[in-house]
Design brief:
The protein has about 350 residues and is of the alpha/beta class. The protein has 13 helices and eleven strands. α7 crosses α9 and α10 packs across α13. The longest helix has 19 residues.
Length: about 350
């Protein structure tokens, strides 16, 4: 899973008539571009279909498969694009191949309306899933055994990932890179795509459109977020941030959620975790110092948040990902640039 590994990380793009060209493009941009010269691990992206027939897509485009569905047995990650017609029945061989892959324990992720394909395969029965906000009711009606979440960017249940519409597919793909290869690899890919490197799955799918009044509020909120990113080692109580924005705590929380899709505390925790990941990947700083610099206060608190958010410990995270990056003792990487 590093650039020198003899076997690249294998990714299967499941292909059949009706899949969305946008989702195919996102998958191809994230996993199909060689960025090993910038420290990103080598990926082996394959377009898997029932046969070699070109797969038609909207807009006069087509996708040429280069592997059969049997290649899913070799994949580390399987990706299912969304659909132009969300009730498009997937070919039975596709559904059977996805079921076998899940039984083997392979990670499967669906973008946007790809959740309908996973539901057709029965893989979402009794599980939580998300899709584009405009398709939530349709997914519930067509697949009542699925627990459809009304508002999230992406979620996971039983090693199956689903994402909301369009841009949320980018967020999920970057999150999957981050999970398997570390925060720096995901950030490098995000920079090359000129997209935000870090949006958590718990953010709202859409954010209120600004008005002239909220434009002014947004400027104040952006300034506060910028301040917070450069002072993560400080307590940063919500009341203090609200005062810096010139708002009451209640008004600040309301405007913050409208602007970012999440709460101030959740946003702040996400930034602290992201900053800690950077330090763990790039420095040899002691755990207590990493916790201090990122505002967790103690290694115990940092460990608790890593366990709840990342299902790992800071030490295990460093052991997994620090070897992927050039580490300099005591050197602090830049904070996330996504205020």
């Amino acid at each position: 899973m590093v650039t020198t590994d003899p076997v690249p990380y294998r990714v299967a793009l499941v292909s059949f008539p009706g899949i969305r060209a946008f989702d195919v493009s996102v998958i191809t941009e994230v996993w199909g571009t060689d960025r090993t010269d910038r420290g990103v691990p080598a990926f082996d992206l394959r377009r898997a279909a029932a046969d070699a027939t070109p797969v038609p897509m909207r807009g006069g485009l087509s996708l040429t498969p280069d592997r059969t569905l049997a290649w899913l047995a070799r994949a580390d990650l399987i990706l299912v694009p969304g659909l132009d017609d969300h009730l498009t029945p997937a070919p039975q061989p596709v559904l059977e191949a996805l079921s076998r892959a899940h039984a083997r324990g392979t990670t499967i992720a669906a973008l946007c309306g790809g959740a309908f394909t996973l539901a057709q395969a029965g893989l979402l029965d009794g599980r939580r899933a998300i899709t584009h906000w405009n398709l939530v009711d349709l997914l519930r009606a067509e697949h009542p055994r699925v627990t459809v979440e009304p508002d999230a960017l992406f979620i996971e249940d039983g090693n199956i990932w689903t994402a909301a519409g369009t841009a949320a597919g980018i967020d999920l793909c970057l999150h999957l890179v981050r999970t398997a290869h570390g925060a720096e690899a995901a950030a490098t890919i995000a920079r090359s795509m000129v997209t935000a490197p870090f949006r958590t799955g718990t953010q709202a799918q859409f954010i209120e459109h600004p008005t002239p009044r909220t434009d002014r509020d947004a400027d104040a909120l952006a300034s506060v977020r910028e301040y917070a990113l450069h002072h993560l080692d400080e307590p940063l109580a919500v009341a203090d941030l609200a005062a810096r924005a010139g708002m009451s705590a209640r008004s600040f929380a309301r405007h913050f959620a409208a602007a970012t899709g999440t709460t101030p505390l959740r946003w702040l925790l996400d930034q602290r975790i992201a900053a800690a990941q950077k330090l763990l990947e790039h420095t040899d700083l002691p755990m207590a110092e990493v916790a201090r610099r990122t505002g967790f206060g103690s290694e115990i608190t940092m460990r608790q948040h890593f366990a709840s958010r990342l299902a790992t410990s800071p030490r295990a995270y460093r052991a997994s990902f620090a070897a992927h990056a050039s580490r300099r003792p005591g050197t602090e990487p830049p904070m996330p640039a996504h205020a």
